[in-house]
Each structure stands twice: as C-alpha cells, then as structure tokens.
Amino acid sequence: MEKKSFNLQDRAGVFSIYLVILFVNAFVDVSHKQIIISTIYKLSGDGPQYLYNESTQIIMTAAISAMILLPFIVLFTLSGYLSDRFAKPNIMRWSAFMAVLVTLGIVYAYYQGEFELAFGLTFILATQSAIYSPAKYGYIKECLGEKGLSIGNAFLMSITLISILLATAASPILFESYLTTHLAQQPEGYFFTSPGEILQVVAPLAWVLVGLSAVEFISTFGLKFYATKYKETKLSVGKWLVGGYLREHVRNMRANQVTWYAILGTAVFWSISQNMLAVLPAHAKANLHIESVALLSLLMAISIVGIIIGSYASSKNSQNGIKVNNVYYGAIILIVCAALIPTFSVPAFLTETSLGFELMGDVISLGLVLTVLTIFVFGIGAGMLVVPLNALIQSSAAPDNLGSVIAGKNWVQNIAMVGLLCITGYVAYNNVNSEYILYFNAVIALVGFTVVLKKLKSIY
C-alpha cells in the first residue's frame, strides 16, 4: 500500500493516461447502447407506422439495461479475484483488447442489419466492462494512495460522466443526422419497417467505436505498475460454481458496517437511476411529446452535468478527508427530485403550455423545462452522494481485499438494478402507466436512503 503523503502532481502523467482509458471505455459502451435505444425509440409510438407501443418500448429499454448489468452479477467473484490476484494494469489491458474485438463484431452487425446480434453484443461488451471494473476502481488507491481516494474518485466520476454526457449527446445527434439524410432521399410517406434497416443507415458510426477501442487498448501500455500486495490463493472453480465465494464476500461486506451501508446507499441510487433511464424515453414521448432522439438525449444528459457539478462540490468539500454530511444532503435532493419529475412532466396545464419556440423540431413546453431543471438538480444530488460513499467503501477495505469488496459493491448494485428493472418490465407488461413507475421510484429512494442514512448517522 502507498505510504507516502498524497501528491497528485507526482503521478499526474500516469493518472491522466488512466483517465483517458476510463473516458474511452465509457464512451464506447454508452454510444452503442444509445444507438440501440435510439433505434427502438424511432420505431415506438401510437399509429400503424410504429412497431412498438409505450409498454413494449419500456420493456425493451429495461431489457437492454438489464443485459448490461447481468455480467456484473454473474462475474462478481471472478472479476474480484482477478483484481486481487493479478496486476490491475494487465487486467485493464486485456479487457481493452477484448473491447476491440467486440466492436469489430458490432461493425458486422450494423452493416448486415442484424439487430438481434447487435442487441446481444451489448451483453458481451458489458462482460468486458464487468471484468475491468474492480481493477479500474482499485487502481486509484494504488496510484494515489489512501489520502487521494476522495479526489481520485471525484476525478473518476467526473471524467466518466463527461464521457457519458458526450456519448449520450453525440451518438443520438449523429444518429438523427444519418436518418434525416436518408429520409430526405426517400419518397414522401416513407417510414422504417424494421430495426435492422435503421442500423444499416447508421452503420458508419460503428467504425468510430472500433477506433476508440483501439485508442483505449494502446493507452493501457502507459499505465505504471505499483508495488502492491496480491493474493496468492487460487480460484476454486467448484466453489465458485456453487456460490461459496459469493457467500464469503457477502459475509465480509456485512462484517464492516461502514462498507455494507455505503454499498447499500450506492445500490439505492443506481437502481432508481437505471430505472429512470429505462422509463424516461417512453414517458417523455407520451407526455412531453418529444419526437427527436437528439432532444431526448439532451434531456437525459442534463443529469450528467448535474452529477459532475455535485461531484466537484463534494470533492471540494472533502480535501482534508471524507465528509459524510454530503451523503445526507445528496440523498435529500434525490428523494425530492425523484418525486418532482412525474409531477412536472404529466399535468396537461404544464405539458401543453408552449413557451413559444421549438428546439430540434419539437415544441418546448413549460412542463419540459421544469422537468429538465429537476433532472439537473437530481444529478447534483447524485454527485454529492456517490463520491463520499465510494470513498467510504475504499477506505474501509483491506488493501489485499479491495478488489473483492469493489466487485461485491458492483454485485449488490447490479442485483438491485436488475431487480427493479424486472419489476418495471413486469408492470409495464401489465400496461401500468410510466407516471406511476416514476412515483414508485421516489418511494424506493425515500425508504432506501432513510435506512442507509439512519445507520450511517449512528456510526458517525
């Protein structure tokens, strides 16, 4: 473990390369996901020209989100073991190489119009991220030392979210541009009849993913190996398959109350956030009357701007240590905003009140503006909450067990996210309105954060 006092300038070069790798990895994952979701969005609505209705759109969006999360659950033990057993730069390097191969497969799927294959490759791309995740988080402590955890996590979250923000905005805008150009060349009344047809139109975007994955792979050769204690034990396949390691990791996480409740706090946040991302596209189209994929992406991306601001504020307030009060402030903001989103986006007197101008071809209403502002503030609360929670998890873990703890955090988070997405898929299948799903999200936030905050308050 690093014993010297933390000085970011001493390792700024290596840490900058590390941030480039994080940026590219997130950009590729989100871009492919956005293209798939945008394809579904363009084929959803009321009318004979649409393939999917609101319920089907919610189910398919929830399914792709769940597909991204499942590898983190299935590979929980393996990814944590690899991070504790082997050098983290090597794990990141091989994961980046795998991403190059997967994106080449995405190129084939797009050009051939194989929507099911492109959909399935989302799972493979997520598998690469699942293996890479514990090493990614664990490398911060190796590179910056324990005193640098708060600011290191703030950098990690900020650069990742900037990447997600750019991918969320750029991918749908380019997607919309390709479709607009294609439709301009078609006869009046033409509309797309299959998702594969849309993928073929936007296929050149897949080469961007390949190029970025290559940059990520090359960048991993700039990471430095630091003296770190690694576990010498071997992985027992039999014990892994019957869940023996899983039970051990859960016991270890629960043995440390700070670690366990900090993990539960992140699980509550990520589950309601993923659920919101699954529901908002269909909700926005039905209630806010958004037709443009590009405008929808900006609606979603504004929360990321808020998270970046919240992360910065949290890290600025934590330069001399972890500030647990930031968790309380962030949780309160999240609960209030989760309830306000459906409150502002449904009533007709708000959604039908035009502000007198259009953006990207859609009329801007008072309800839309209020919803956007609420999502932005939601993001600020998220940044204030997650940075100190991640720092608490990392600081309370033993150096030779950090990878397993982080993998355990991922496992709990993803169990919570997939569980809530499954509930959403079920209620959407039974034609429950998106408004009520969003209110249910707020209830989950209230109950979950109340439990976590009450416990953390008793510890600190």
What do these coordinates show?
With 460 residues, the chain is an all-alpha fold. It has one domain: Growth Hormone, Chain: A, CATH 1.20.1250.20. Helix content is 77%, strand content 2%. It has helices at residues 12-42, 54-74, 76-85, 88-112, 115-144, 149-184, 195-201, 205-219, 237-241, 244-255, 257-287, 293-316, 325-345, 348-351, 366-395, 402-429, 434-459; strands at 354-359, 362-365. Strands 1-2 form a two-stranded antiparallel sheet. A hairpin with a 2-residue loop joins β1 (354-359) and β2 (362-365). The chain is globular.
Q: How many domain regions? A: 1
Helix proportion: over 70%
The residue ranges in which pLDDT falls below 50 over 5 or more consecutive positions are none
Summarize model confidence as the mean pLDDT.
84
The CATH superfamily name is: MFS general substrate transporter like domains
Largest sheet: 2 strands, antiparallel
N to C succession of SSEs: HHHHHHHHHHHHHHEEHHH
Give the CA-based shape: globular
Strand order of the largest sheet: 1-2
> What is the gyration radius calculated from CA atoms?
22 Å
Give the CATH topology: Growth Hormone, Chain: A
Number of strands: 2
The number of helices is: 17
> At the first level of CATH, what is the class?
Mainly Alpha
Strand content: under 5%
Derived structural class: mainly alpha
What would CATH call the architecture?
Answer: Up-down Bundle
Q: Please give the alpha-carbon distance between the first and last residues.
A: 26 Å
